[in-house]
Amino acid sequence: MIALILAAGVMSPQLVKLGNGLSMILDSDPREKMVTIVALVRAHDRPPRDLAALELVATAMALESKNFSKSEIDAITTYVGGSLRCQFVGDSIQVVLATAPTHFGAAATLLGDILQRATFTAESLTEARALLDAEHAKLSEDPAFVPLRALRDRLDAGPSALQPLSDDQAAGLYDFIVRPDRTAIAVVGNFDAAAVKSRLADSFEAWEKPLTAVRLPPPVAHSVPRSPAVAASSIVGPPPASPDFAAWMVACSALAMGKGSAMHTRLRDELGWTYEQSVSFTVRQRQTHALPFAVSHAASPGDLESELESIIASLPDRLTPAATARAKAYLSGWYRSGPAPPARRFAPFAQGHSDPASRAYWLAWWHLAGGSFTLDEAFLEATSKVTHDQVVAAARSFRSEFGAP
Amino acid sequence: MLEHLMLTPEIEAMAEAAECRLNGTTYREFVTLTVEGPAHRWREGISSLLQALEFNPTEARLAVERRVILEEIRLQDRRTLESVERDIWRSFFPDASPWAQRTSGEESAISTLTVERIKESFSHSFTRANLVFAVAGAVKESDVMAVATKALESLPAGEKLSAAAYAPQGRQKALIRGNLAGQGFAAPGIRDMEAYAAFAIAFSCLTESVRGRLKLDAFDEWFGPSEHGSIASFALRFRSGASAGDAIDHAIRSLPSSAGPSIGRTRRMLISSVEIAKNDPRTCSLHMGSGALCNRPDLLDDYARALADLSEEAVLRAAASIAAGVGQ
User: Please, which pLDDT band fits residue B164 given cuts at 50, 70 and 90?
Assistant: First the structure.
């Protein structure tokens, strides 16, 4: 059964819900040359142990399936003239698949196998582990990567360190998490909506899985290097669907987003301590975490942390109407046109809407995290209506928690 | 340092208040200052960028930016493939050559820089003869020029600086460091676009072959097009136990015989990457600007045309030339 719901007053995008709970959001744009499909599987309610295992499962999902070997998956990806990436980032498993419009059917078949019929063997898990270790080694060249992972783990808001996983455990977790009612598939690009809707329904309508519990190995602690100094804090905020979310995000922007932010002004322009500081977001089921962080070779860890603490504490008093206006403008400019993240590591508010994959990501993300893809557009409007007083109040509510282990 | 000092906090705040983001990048032959943001805020974004041309650095700002650039260098040194690539590129030039230096400057040079020296560098290079202003996106040229002309015309005429000295020495450089390996090649300049495009296809066939021969944990490739002589390189991290040097050498030596079946696919991939670049305003404006500086204002179109028109024999000749450079 297919129920078609049109967004109020707008012909596109369209939401299609299948009887098994799978949501599909179709945004057809004939100006595009390709079709980009982003499937997100929600996992923002799971503990660090599960998230660590999901990192491995997500990487292994695209290596082999019941119907296709690894080389066949590679061949189909080449045949459809596109690219495939499957990973766990932030709060969800993400499958990103680009295809030529003429080959959408083959792409849908491949996506169907990855989401419904992935298989896990000792070989595929070993390969996935090697791929993940290599990726983490590369990402660890950024000194903030491991400390931020460790902080999220401690807050129950991100994966513990990678753990060994048997093929049975991987398959069990895959069945438990990768389910139609946890999944949103967004399609953006040049396609005929009726044909794509029908093709996706063919691939996913029969998707049903029994809900069976899985026993996973205990979590593993992160090993955090001591140098250089990295200060990171957590500020808890409202979930994305909350009416207070936009004001809270603008306050975070005033604190740490852009070169006019309080952190950049103090840590870089006044002290010259750091080239690297920003904020990273993690969205959980009932709250959002903003993790402002700074890296410095020049400052001691203690000095960097106390300076960051002081910037956060003094933000409400430093906020002027001009600073609020800048923070609003920066946030909406970034949201509209910010670049895609390196290596396509899609995560909320780490990117804008600059390309089809990013646009598809945001549609699916808002649907899962906020309850409706229409919040993608509505977030911009809500941001524009935020008042200075609301931002000051949000900054006053900041209760930061320090202590990357 | 010039790039850091031109984008003052005040100018950056002006751009950000207009939903835009300012950034600078220093390459070996030129500096780019970019502003990007939603098309409907183009006027304010471009005005903030042009404001950077009213250059007036202070001692206090210089002292802060010295510390910031030293931080930047320490962060760069953590990126292992980038370090291999930097060492490969340096090895194409004599130690004393400015082309052998880091683009961010060496520590010793940064600590002795003065405001006067930086102002001199600005006057020398930021002239009408040496500055290219490129805009891409949903804007009209006439509207943009109505805003930009006054600021651009206020610059001195200057004399066109030449990049002729930027000619890599030697044909090929190799580096193995632990489980890291890198390989660099002197390539034709974009003055001879046909030879450049043939080299680009052959080089892509080579990287594909290398990636197929080794179990890799990381791989990056770079292409530095220049008017008179380009450099192409790749760097990789291989899994322990692999004999990476031998595998890479073998891939290079066998390129003339192995490239054939890959040429068509590689050619299509490169043409497609040009299309992608033309549709991305940031990349497109960067290519228009750097192309114009290298006397090749229609760089992307010229490149796409050369890629499409090349004969397979021309690519195989480029492959033979790459193979002939092993060990030299």
Answer: low
The predicted pLDDT at position B241 comes to 59
8 Å CB contact of B237 and A134 = yes
User: Distance (Å) from the C-alpha of residue B185 to the closest C-alpha of chain A?
Assistant: 25
Which chain A residues touch B282 with a CB distance below 8 Å?
A: 339
Contact B180, B84 (CB under 8 A): yes
Q: Any idea what DSSP says for residue A231?
A: E
Cβ within 8 Å, pair B21-A334 = yes
pLDDT value, residue A404:
45
Kindly calculate the radius of gyration of chain B based on its CA atoms and give it in whole angstroms: 21
ipTM, two decimals, is 0.88
Contacts of A298 in chain B (CB under 8 A): 67, 70-71
Percent of chain B with pLDDT over 90: 71
> Average per-residue pLDDT in chain B?
91
Low-confidence stretches of chain A (pLDDT beneath 50): 1-10, 404-405
A78 to chain B: nearest residue by CA?
Answer: B265
Which DSSP symbol is given to A341?
P
**Cβ-based burial of A253 (10 A; exposed 0-12, middle 13-18, buried ≥19):** buried
Per-residue pLDDT tens digits for B82-127 = 999 999 999 999 888 888 888 888 889 999 999 999 999 999 999 9
Residue A137, CB half-sphere, CA atoms under 13 Å: how many?
15
Q: Most B CBs within 10 Å: which of A255, A269, A351, as the mutation test of the B interface?
A: A269
DSSP character at residue B98: G
Q: Which residues in chain A are contacts of B38 at CB distance < 8 A?
A: 333, 336-337
How big is chain A, counted in residues? 405
Query: What pTM was computed for the model?
Result: 0.91
| Inter-chain CB proximity A275 and B68 less than 8 Å | yes
Q: Which stretches of chain B sit within 8 Å of chain A by CB?
A: 9, 12-13, 16-22, 36-38, 41, 63-72, 74-75, 78-80, 217-218, 237, 239, 275, 280, 282
Q: Which two tokens stand for residue A337?
A: 């046109």
Q: How close B71 comes to chain A (CA, Å)?
A: 6
- Report how far residue A37's alpha carbon sits from residue A35's, in angstroms, rounded to the nearest whole number: 7
* Degrees to nearest 5, angle at CA B279 with B275 and B283: 95
Residue B215: partners with Cβ closer than 8 Å, 6 or more residues away: B238, B239, B242
Dist. CA A99–CA A191, nearest whole Å: 11
CB atoms closer than 10 angstroms to residue A179: 21
H helices of B161-280, in order, are 193-213, 244-253, 255-258, 260-279
Please give the distance of CA B50 from its chain centroid, rounded to a whole number.
23
pLDDT of residue A400: 72
Q: To the nearest whole angstrom, how far is the Cα of B163 from the nearest Cα of chain A?
A: 30
Cβ distance of A330 and B79 shorter than 8 Å: no
A-B contacts at Cβ under 8 angstroms: 98
Distance CA B168, CA B189 (A): 10
Closest chain A C-alpha to B276 CA, distance in angstroms:
10
Picking from A134, A259, A339, the nearest residue to B9 by CB comes out as: A259
Give yes or no for a contact between A231 and A292, defined as CB atoms under 8 angstroms apart: no
Across the interface, whether the CB atoms of B38 and A298 are under 8 A apart is answered no
* pLDDT at residue number A299: 95
Q: Which among B21, B71, B275 has CB closest to A275?
A: B71
Say if residue A292 is exposed, middle or buried (CB neighbours under 10 Å; 0-12, 13-18, 19+).
buried
Q: What is the pLDDT of residues A63-95, one digit of tens each?
A: 999 999 999 999 999 888 778 999 999 889 999
Predicted confidence band of residue B215 (pLDDT cuts 50, 70, 90):
confident
The mean pLDDT of B280-290, rounded to a whole number, is 88
